[in-house]
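Recall the central idea of this unit: under ordinary conditions, the amino acid sequence of a chain determines the structure it adopts. In this exercise we apply that idea directly, starting from the sequence alone.
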Amino acid sequence: MALDPNEKPNQPVTKFESMLKTDDVYFFDAEDFEDIIHHYLNNGKISLAKKAIKIGLQQHPESMELKLLDVEVMVFENNLELAEKILDRLQLLDGTNEEIYIQRANIYSKKDNHEAAVALLKKALSLTEESFDIYALLGMEYLFMDDYEQAKVNFMKCVSFDEHDYSSLYNVIYCFEFLEDYEGAIAYLNEYLERNPYCQVAWHQLGKQYFTLKLYEEALAAFDFAIISDDTFLGAYFEKGKVLEKLGRYNEAIENYETTISIDDPTSHAYLRIGKCHEKLANDDLAKFYFYQTVHEDPLLDKGWLAITNFYFKKHKYDRALYYINKAINIDGENAKYWKKCARIHAALEHYDEADFAFKQAVDLGNYELDTWLNWAEVVTQNQEVEAAIQILLQGLEFYPEEAVILYKMAGLYLMANDPVKAQYRFRKALKKDIEMVDIFKEEFPSFYDSVWARNIIESVQKASK
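Accordingly, the structure predicted from this sequence is:
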């Protein structure tokens, strides 16, 4: 049965859905349609929003707000050309409606013309006093433009309008972090907490800033206040556990990770952290148990497989370590860290060809750490490829031109390659940079170190330095 046209429904969404299940047609005020459409848009139910817009425009064909909601859906679905045509018509009818400029800004944003979007949003700001949503949109546009200062300012305005707008609060802190202004973030959060002393989100974010600055006691206090404000706040327990790990309080860290498991479903990340704590406590059986729980909970978590790999590597069980690092690589073959670990395992097993290949993969993927070059050169040297080892160290020297350790190793390799001229050049340069590190050369190339050649060069450098 149809509703009385003069009766305003108390639950428009429920009655609208009831109407869809029947052949009856209910009448709704335009404002009710707006509420219904906003409800569906906010819940991601686009098809139902479109049905409500269609029926709403049939009942209220002149409603500017319903037409603008229709445009909003068109923009969302990238039907930009039609949306612009409708906005052109609507602007002729009411050029002072801020929503027209907001939707035009959304269209420009979709086209990656963020400067034009900002200009239109500022125009919208001049037309309305209800500017909360516009500041949020401005903040996002500035983020797209990598203008974190302006983004921060606009998100701060959102928070000043509604101090429970945690999305904007997170964005403010994100901007501080991107700008590496952690002290600024701390000052802002402390000021916010003076007004909202029981805001668990702010305490949590404050703790993370202190953690970044390695102010662990302050971070611990902040996470404690977050937990006092909400004793079911999983993130606070987890972050507190990480702080306690840094402080060497592993049993307390375990308690906090276990709390996250007791409050909600277990997570692989919690199991991983518990396993690492037990490893620090030398509880090997428990560490191994939790590492296996990690990959059981999430077989695609490559960090879990890496943890098991490291566990066996430290125990010198290289075959087992190799099995598990291959698991990690199968999940994330673009991870340079895994290839480097794979190379070290192959080297320990004296699989020099495989180690050479794995080191090359690590470097190709962007791992340029000093020990990568040194260990890679050592592997190919063990494989009797001295010239290749020299070339590897030459590459490493481009990244670490001041590292004496590379020069000492190159001097020894040039001697192995029967090139005393280049060996002398590198050896002299190494001695001048750090003569105290000559023990590296002595350890790796004892016969060369004991030679008259080396002794004469060392004496000449020592005399020149006096």
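The two ends are 106 Å apart (CA to CA).
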